[in-house]
Amino acid sequence: MIRSLSWNDLLFFLGALRWTVLLASIACLCGGVLGLGVALARVARSPAVRALAATYIQIVQGTPVLMLLFLSYYGLSLFGYDLPPMVAASVSMSIYVSGYLGDIWRGSIQSVAKQQWEASESLGMTRAQQYRHVILPQAIKISLPPTVGFMVQVVKNSSIASIIGFVELAKAGQLINNVTFQPFAVFLIVAALYFCVCYPLSHFSRRLERKSHA
Fold first, then answer.
1. What CATH superfamily classification does 7-213 receive?
2. What's the pLDDT at 55?
3. Residue 181 phi, psi (nearest 5)
4. C-alpha–C-alpha distance, residues 181 and 204, integer Å
5. Domain boundaries in the chain?
6. Which of 31, 86, 105, 197 could anchor a disulfide with 39, C-beta 3.0 to 4.6 Å?
7. pLDDT band, very low/low/confident/very high, at 184 (cuts 50, 70, 90)
């Protein structure tokens, strides 16, 4: 039965937006932890470790996010692991985030002046102390603008979770459109809600970039 948009539909959209933000947050948190390990491995002293990390980054960046989602949701079921849509989406998005943040943070670490490494080494610091007290504090400041900017892409790419039935914002738009047949109004609301999340992040990223350049 076709019906008009109602206030309850807007509440449904807001509830779906909450799941979109939650999925993006989990992906950025878990992917960030894994990405930090990838970045450190990418600048490790061992050539084998660097090569392994580089291969991981190339595989992740060369694989569409949708394929990662299918492998997590459908692929693991072949081995007896039936993941709920939320878990499968979180796993695939975290892997996707780790591949890109690992590369972003690797570049930030390598952009720290070589003299900083030499000075900290001359003070007798261990490798871990160099990272903790000298390199990472500077690398974090350098990496903040691109990291925040990348988070915008994570929020938008979370829409692929709708493919496996996870009711985030894009899926909510499809469901409401199926009963109202008002695609322009429905997806205009969906776009506006995405904008409300992504624009502040984009603006914050530009501010950080201008501040770091200054």
1. MetI-like (1.10.3720.10)
2. 96
3. 50, 45
4. 36
5. 7-213
6. 105
7. very high
